[in-house]
Amino acid sequence: MVERKVKFQNSEDVEDFVKAAGQCDFDIDILYDHIYIDAKSFLGVLGLGLRRNLTVQYFGENAIFENILENYAVA
Asked: Which pTM was predicted?
């Protein structure tokens, strides 16, 4: 399992992230506090709120997805 911290500024960021996640053949979760959401759900991810530091957990490898994650990574 890999964990990364991300932050989305607007709904277009969420849309790009969810599209990339949807093309992966492994599970991807996004969480805030104790709330876990399937990262392939646009409304679920958007419901966690914008401009929050979120944690992405994923269980595989996909170069395109990991490149998208870099755009939203929090140091």
From this structure: 0.91
